[in-house]
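Researcher: Hi, I'm a grad student and pretty new to this. My advisor asked me to get structures for two proteins we've been looking at. I'm not sure of the right format, so I'll just paste the first sequence and hope you can take it from there.
Model: That works fine. Here's the first sequence with its structure tokens right after it:
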Amino acid sequence: MTAIRRLLSAVAVVTALGSPAVAQDWPTRSIQTISTVSAGNAGDIVARVVLDQVSKQIGQSFVLENRPGAGGTLATAHVAKADPDGHTVLLITSSQASYVVMHRNLPYDPIRDLQPVAMFGVQPSVLVAAPSKGWKTLSDLIAAIKARPGQLNYASAGLGSASHFPAERLKLAAGLDAQHIPFRGPVEAFTEVMTGRVDFYYLPIVPALPQIKDGKVVALAVSTPARAPSLPDVPSVVEAGYKEAQYLFWGGLAFPAKTPRAIVDRMYQETVKALEVPAVQERLKQMGVQPMPMTTDQFTKFFHDDITSTVKLAKEINLGPTN
């Protein structure tokens, strides 16, 4: 028994001493970077900006592969089952929670199989309507819906999308009865709102800004707890009195769950360093990304809580798997 104890102690010492060495040697080759969305998606562009800077810092490239098939689940499963050596990483967003809601049987467990690493930031969504509706504030919209329960409608880019959930949160928080019209994508949804054929719609701030400035749509509220810097005159849903209506669309990185903590910590440190570069900050600001600093452990909890919260929301609105 004494010999076994000595052996275990020796292993523990070697492991403890070896962890920094593992992180120091990593990466030894380019890093396969898997995205669950199509190239050009907002979350995809943000990741490219940040990882381009990280690449310069670590001396290795991030080879980004877009795999949007099967609602992003196959891409996630690929990373979840990959060799946990720090050379395969996943771009994760709020959509991970949607995958849990919209799929009956996932080929992975997002809680057990993924290790969140670092948060890039949050992209606020803005609630818009056509000027022809005559609404100037969120209160105006809510009053109109309550005056005609079940008769007004709202667009989304599809069931479980980042434009669907904030509208559902608002409906629950304000006790509203409005009809959901899911479209095949954001362009069609936004077009129908601008024409006034659909009453209201949530979408990311950046694609909405030109239309807001040109007066083609009216911004009624933003989904984040505080106002968005790019729309300083538009109140948040929390300011308007609907705390439960807030919705955060976020993006970040995750490794396979068994990736050595030393590598996870190194990737975290390099990502935080990249996010502090003024040129990167300026690019993200232009894309409407707001910083949301947190440690790896805080991000992990945030990720798990986001899934739990979204699953709860889905149950409240009777939204279930489509396959």
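Researcher: Oh nice, that was easy. Here's the second one.
Model: And its structure:
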Amino acid sequence: MMEIRARQKESIIILDLIGRIDVDCANLVEAVAQCLRDGYTDILCNLEEIEFIDYMGISVVVIVYKEVMNAHGRMKLCNVPAHIRNILCIAGLDRVIGMYPDETIALDSFKEDKIIEDIKKMQLRRRFKRLPIDIKIELKAKGARNPVCLKLDVLNLSAIGAYIFGCNQFKLGDEVILKLKLPPKDDLLELEAKVVWLPDKHVQPHSYPGMGVEFSNVSRDMQQKLVEFIERNLSFMSSD
């Protein structure tokens, strides 16, 4: 059985793999699954001491990679010996899984991914217009046993998020569910969201208490309704 040694660098788990990646390496699946259960979704596999890989081993690598992707994580390889890299390239995995010549470069690539991801999110936010508005919503914590339903105000709205005024009961990263009715037809929308911004009471006193949320798991139809509502009302405002 392949030996696995786990260590951690910041939020990244590094798995040092030793021996052979073959039919007897089910412990790799178990190790990656445990990382995901523990909340670690960035995984770097160090193959420096791998001597051999066969087609069954390649299947195991594919399985664990898919598990990480399904958990919205990232898995990369480093220090891949030349003969192992050749086999992985023949299998086409070099086009799917990032392979790096050493650990330092691999770890830096995780940071670069985060920077690129943040830039893309910022571009996405800028692409969707924000509508200043004052409408009532119902808000509750997602997954709570006895969620308290709060009646609050949305002060601006976009197709990917909103600013909710009048609440200081949540912290960054909390998941919530909000219900709102879009006038004039009062179409009821129920949206999942995550808290991504909290105003500082002293720096932004006019925005406090409140929170910025980013919508998640929004269907295309629901996002289209939001876009159409925002565009329609922005056009009314510009014509006044």
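Researcher: Is there anything I should tell my advisor about the second?
Model: You could mention this: The first strand starts at residue 3 and ends at 9.
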